[in-house]
Amino acid sequence: MVMPRTRVELHEAFAAFLGSENVYYRPPESKKLEYPCIVYMPHSGDSQYANNKTYIFHRSYDVQLIYKEADTDLPERFAYKFPKCRFDRSFKTDNLNHDNFVLYT
Question: What are the Cα distances from residue 84, in Å, to 16, 93, 105?
Fold first, then answer.
């Protein structure tokens, strides 16, 4: 898979992965989320330099998979679909499972 380069392409790739539009970029607190869903936001960036200039810049995103059922292969499928990701942590809150990844574009 070719990694999406823009945030809009990434959003579309997440929606295609889920098979739904339950993908949220920096949702406001008042937004009612529907599950399973993906919530993502910028994490950091990595610059590579040549001749005292930025040669390549790679952005990364914090990505949360949020779902109700505890026994799902969603995190594993995500890791295989987006190979430039790193699993960060997993936790449960309000009866919802959260798996966090850092995804590099």
Answer: 17, 27, 7
Extract the tokens encoding 40. 């993502």
Q: What is d(CA 86, CA 72) in angstroms, rounded to the nearest whole number? A: 19
Q: Are 39 and 66 in contact (CB under 8 A)?
A: yes
- Specify the pTM: 0.86
Pairing outcome for strands 37-50 and 53-67:
antiparallel
Helix axes of 7-18 and 74-81: crossing angle, nearest 10 degrees: 140
CA 25 to chain centre: 9
User: What are the structure tokens assigned to 63, written together?
Assistant: 């990505």
Mean pLDDT score across all residues of the chain:
91
CATH code for the domain defined by 7-104: 3.30.2000.30
Q: Hey, what are 71's tokens?
A: 């026994």
- 49-79 pLDDT per residue, tens: 888 888 777 789 999 999 999 889 999 999 9
Give the 3-state secondary structure of residue 44. Answer: strand
